[in-house]
Amino acid sequence: MNLAKYNWELPTHSQEETKLIEELQMAGLKYSPAFLRLCIERGFTSKDQVEQAINQTPQLYHDPFNLYQMDIAVERLQEAVANGEQILIYGDYDADGITSTLILFETLETIGANVDYYLPNRITDGYGPNVARYEEFIANGVQLILTCDNGIAGHEAIARAKELGVDVIVSDHHEMQATLPDAYAIIHPKHPEGDYPFAELSGAGVALKISHALLDEIMPEVVELAAIGTLCDMVSLTDENRTIVLGGLQFLKDTQRLGLRLLLETQQVEFDKIDVDTVGFVIGPRLNAIGRLGDPTPALKLLQTFDEEMAQQLVVLINEKNSERQAIVKQIQQEVEARIDLLPELPNVIVESGTDWHAGVLGIVASRLKEKYNRPTILFQHLLDKQELKGSGRSVDQVNIFEWLQSIDQHISYYGGHSQAAGLTVNENSWENFKEALHSLANKHEDKINQPESLKIDAVLPVSEIEVDFIEEVELLGPFGMDNPRPLFVFEDVLVKNIRLIGADKTHVKLSVSENQHADTILDCVAFSKATQFEGIQNEDTLSLVGTLSLNEWRNKVSPQVMVTDMGIARTQWLDYRSSRIAPELLQETAAIYVFRHSKLAAYFSERIPSSSQVMLYQEVNQESLETNTKEKLIIMEPPQDIDSLEFLIKQTEWSKIYLGSFVQESKYTAGEPTRQEFAVLYRWLSQQSSFHFRQSLSKMSEVLKIHQTRLKLMIVVFFEAEFVTIKDGFVSFNTAHSKEAVDLFALPAIEKYRREMQTEALLNYQTISEIERYFEENEVKS
Fold it and tell me: Where does the record place the RecJ OB domain (predicted)?
């Protein structure tokens, strides 16, 4: 598929699948065949499996004491409560860390603990256990530290606490390194000596298990917190996490947390419609924003307080911080993109730093750049006073960034994270070596990085099957997220209707599609941030779409809608850039071949196009010159002398796009072909002239003879081929000694060449794009 950003992995269907659908229907599952086909594609092949997958009130909670050392941790916490020891919950600054901290705080308060919490400041404390902070709290009387959403890599601080006689219980879920800290107990679903049946809990999920173990019951008010942490931390939405999220969403619809209610009200959220997106796009970003820019404690207090005045103040503060965060993200992203534009080619890994960049938002920017460029991206804040760089990285699916950092950890002071995201610190004196090692590593994996990411398609569906009832069936498989992605559907060879750009900056696309000209069903589609990909697509074009399904409510009417993930066309796309002036954007295309007729123009423009593109002359095009071509875009800067040379060029490569500039310095098509009468007039005039300089006399000749200059130039060449004139050093002389035999001027090579140029220009400059496209397609079939 040309224009597609991803590799589409289409499902295969078999007679066995058809038989399974019939069996499921006979077993009493009253769902559409399309939905049952989707269930089978997801691996649900029995009635019990389907019913479990669509159960919206699951009760799958594993025994918390199956977590390794949970019994030791609970016993120590109960001892601390009984003895009145001062307990500190040491959390984290993101939404998962904030919610897990509050879960543990409210739980320990419930059983009468002397407990307080601390959320580290991302900027001043950094991630995870901090030696100085631990020492400070211990000096102030803390006798037991309980971490949440951190600690698995906190060797130094935990060892220091032990030296000072204070036990540390670690509760965490991040990737474990080879050596574990010397903690009193470590509660981790992936503990190497444990055997917990579900390894993908979030930090809040682990906190929920501790709460359950301490109370011997699950409190609804902490389940809603666990659901927020689980959704915000992008962990697997299967097994126990599905129970946590679905239960938590139900509790959120009737939440008694005053601050949370006020926050949702400011964003016009309808409480009965709270879903995964509400957490992902409304709650999560705002809880994260304040921790990204400084002290995250107000976010926790917002979830905790029952004081209306305080809640209102906190909502204002958090919304302001979120707006501030958005502005900072945009500024840094633009700065990095400007740097990348100046590079001769896109590197295999993006590594950039800035002294004024805010470390708290670098993960967001890295994620956006990763999506835009399909490259692992690590961005750093350069702390000049500390002589170190603190960074956040995000990776493409093909690369495990945590393993990359492990392999070059001799250049890194600290790192942590997982396969797709990581945080790290690099000393100034290791910076250049770190970058060199990382780029070297990326270059070794260039083929893997350059592979388009795959989209696993759940089903290929006709537009006519997309109805409200079917979409409601699909929603039963939710909540969607990690390991349970929202189903992706392909709509093949649909006809475009009513396409237009939307949004303040016109970067989004809204269109409707149908199966054909006469189809009754019209399906609305929205493609966010895909205006560039849809460039050149017009009404009545045929294309294929990949997307997810949703319901659009407008004026009390509910209708199906496709949220477009990718698009492609099964042919080369032609883009019309014909104009009297060269469009500046035409000279900015990367990885393209710019083809010219005239060598002087080619030389001029070769210095004005991106370094990843190349210039080629039509006369240089041959099989050998194109054998190693890796370019996907062809830019026709000038029409060729002969259409055959362009046909050859087009047929030799699977071009994704052909940009038609076809700039003509002198139009032969508009000048037309000379007539016999004009040849006779010129002949008589020449026979009466002495030698003259043709170029210097051309304008005057045209005026006197009333013959277009372009035709005059041709006629002089024709007379030269017929030996009626001689030409030397630009001077034309009538040849009185030429043969008097009749010459068919219109059969001479110059005329034939001129006619071919006229025909080429007539096609490339005066036909519609669709007619030009049809011409080359028909010639391809004939050949």
Answer: 457-566
